[in-house]
């Protein structure tokens, strides 16, 4: 009998064929559905297909006593408990890098949209207001402005590269300055100072205990009424209640948001505000990028089946020889 690969995602037919060489596949829609499986079946599960946006409870993982490998679809690994996964020496693969361009593209799109009012002016035209109310009010320029990147990792670097094409000045904050960056990428020692220094602040940091609500009320106050916040990271890295207030009271100029604390729920107060552009967590959602993510996530399983290690492991799940 083959071991079981339990999947929280739908697997394409051609990928099933590749995985079937090693595993019997069971797809479930959510964690609760696992409780309908017998203990014998759960004991045969050695592989789990998860996602950067699907939280896993410890109870669920405890019900899989022989779990050896998780392949997670996405670059974020915030749903996984580091101590627990390491204690069980579970291999944890993910899909970094293949989505950097796509996520950076959406960060630029949100910045341009909220500054140049693309979505709002589209609504204006559709509502017939160009005819009835006349020319649309002025937007704000992006080219040549100061851009802050909170979290200069692989995605942050791609955002900076694009922003240079817009002749923006680049500022960033990480825990430590990076030594490998161009001299014209200016390190700023704290999120508050970074917010003070820029016209646009893009959040591109992973969600960890350390970065939870790193963009808090003080950071939003430091950003101020002329500047914009863009979040393509995780909802949890921003104090969402403080952000809603800042947008309502116009203590920041606006925001472009792809991620929220309690997805797919979005604070309803945002729906009536024209100084915010909202997208439903689609930064990596193009055919090309999702195919690349899918392929890498399948390869993580195949590599594990052959060599006992995933192809690309999350940084804290590398156990050595
Ligand atoms: C999700 C993401 O993976 O990669 C990440 O961390 O948040 C996204 O790319 C994607 O939405 C699938 O759930």
TrEMBL record:
Pfam families per the record? 2-Hacid_dh, 2-Hacid_dh_C
Q: Quote the InterPro entries the UniProt record gives.
A: D-isomer_2-hydroxyacid_DH, D-isomer_2_OHA_DH_cat_dom, D-isomer_DH_CS1, D-isomer_DH_NAD-bd, NAD(P)-bd_dom_sf
The residue ranges of the D-isomer specific 2-hydroxyacid dehydrogenase NAD-binding domain are 108-283
The record places domain D-isomer specific 2-hydroxyacid dehydrogenase catalytic at 10-310
Q: Which UniProt keywords apply?
A: NAD, NADP, Oxidoreductase
- A GO MF label: NAD binding
Report whether Membrane shows up as a keyword of the record: no
One cellular-component annotation, GO = cytosol
Which protein family is named in the record?
Belongs to the D-isomer specific 2-hydroxyacid dehydrogenase family.
Q: What is this protein called?
A: Hydroxyacid dehydrogenase
Per the UniProt record, the source organism is Oligella urethralis DNF00040
